[in-house]
Amino acid sequence: MSVETFEAAQLSDAGIVPAIELIWREAHLLDRKEYHDWDRLWAPGSRYVIPIDPDTDDFESELNMVYDDDRMRRMRIERLTSGYSISATAAARTVRTLSRFVVQHRDDETVELSSAQVLVGYRREETFVLGADVTHRIRLDGAEPLIEEKVVRLINSTGAVNASGFLL
């Protein structure tokens, strides 16, 4: 199958477009710091991971910048919204773009998409750019698609990464 045929087949798949729309909605909510609405996009038992090793898939055994289950994700949201932490008081303004969607896996219940994310932030009178390869596993078997897993592989993850004050 040619690349053009493969891409056209992906876009005609009834599960792909809603999954991409969910990922774009997630980016919109994060840029607006609507963290409680963002939390409602996640399936029960989901996880949010930002690994240090860009090649690992063994998140449980490796050191990660972020490894959040439901409980930890909600604790992180509480810190970001409470106003009592440095991450909340000096939070960056962000604009992110996600593109280059590629279907990695598809079955009746889930779709796994990889994409590229470019995030531009502004904090303390400085502008910065972060790039990442992102993988979302989206659960499709409910009333609405939900995020089951999100893995953000920062392109500079093995170097010094400053505290962000926002969610990737």
TrEMBL record:
Domain of life, source organism: Bacteria
Entry keyword Metal-binding: no
GO BP term (any one): 3-phenylpropionate catabolic process
Sorted UniProt keywords: Dioxygenase, Oxidoreductase
Coiled coil: none
SUPFAM superfamilies tied to this protein: NTF2-like
Alphabetized InterPro entries for the sequence: NTF2-like_dom_sf, Rng_hydr_dOase-bsu
GO molecular function, one term: dioxygenase activity
Family as reported in the entry's similarity comment: Belongs to the bacterial ring-hydroxylating dioxygenase beta subunit family.
This protein's name: Putative aromatic hydrocarbon dioxygenase small subunit
Organism, scientific name: Rhodococcus wratislaviensis NBRC 100605
Lineage of the organism: Bacteria, Bacillati, Actinomycetota, Actinomycetes, Mycobacteriales
